[in-house]
Specification:
Layout (H helix, E strand, L loop, with lengths): L3 E7 L5 H11 L11 E7 L4 E4 L5 E4 L11 E4 L7 H5 L4 H7 L7 E4 L4 H6 L7 E2 L6 H7 L4 E2 L5 E3 L3 E4 L4 H14 L1 H11 L26 H8 L8 H7 L4 H12 L3 H19 L4 H7 L5 H12 L3 H9 L20
Parallel strand pairs: 1-2, 1-5, 5-6, 6-10, 7-8
Antiparallel strand pairs: 3-4, 9-10
Amino acid sequence: MKPHRVVVLAMDGVLPFELGIPHRIFGRPQDDRGRPLYEVVTCSIRPPGPVRTDADFAVQVEHGPETLATADTVIVPASYELGPVFERGALTDELAAALAHIRPGTRLASICTGVYVLAAAGFLDGRPATTHWAESDRLQQLFPRVKVDADVLFIDDGDVLTSAGVAAGIDLCLHMVRRDHGTAVANDVARRTVVPPHRDGGQAQYIHRPVPDPQQSTTTSVRAWALGRLHEPIQLRDMAEQESMSVRTFTRRFREEVGVSPGQWLTQQRVERARHLLESTDLSVDQVAHDAGFGTAQSMRQHLQTALGVTPTAYRRTFRAGSGTLSDTSGSYDDAGIRD
């Protein structure tokens, strides 16, 4: 089996952290025979040589722009030296020539302000996209044809994916591994990288707001309580009572901490439980629906169709095979605000 080739485009001013994320995440997954599922290479928009970073060191890039023509996936990390791309939304001749190597049908992704490159190249016209919340207004003003959503950690629009700032690049890359090879592979990568396999909520929880009083109650314990009872009916008042709060206070506190409402969070967790059971067990769809807390197969089918764009049977057929993807579906927003 030929590994899926991920080409990371390093431009002057690249942030080393973002540059390293694809190598760390895609460099881990292996098949059941120990063969790598991905091959990750880095290229520049110029012939091989040093590329400046935003730190006090440069990186030596061994591949030129022609490498983009070999990519199955191209990832554009953030850079602080985008020049005309950031200032007026225009590609330089050098960057345009480099991007011209990308083959039609190649999957494209950006981390943080790397989205400006995809937008300036026209890849995001009429499509949803995200970036760091502090850059979202500027991105929208510069590229009015892009449907900017500043509330999510990443957006999957099929063959074009974009992420919010910095660590959201990890979320995005793990999502692509999960989409390509299933939850078990992505979770293994997350464990080895010592990061959560999936973060709740969106960017709203990271925008500056007053720090909660450490003496006040939080919703951490009730989330653990709910996760142990996903197969049971859970009412909002039940969750509020666990924290000895009124429903109104609990709902406000929960949204402040998690970034979504308690109901949205519960649905998100049940979708994740259903995905895991569909991938890893032979339970019937009815039993999976019960164990994930949806009650009926019809209810679960509706929620998975909304969150993933596929039915439970189609999802199981894809990921029990171990090598399929969901890239043939355009998807829709799930209850966590992530386009999948």
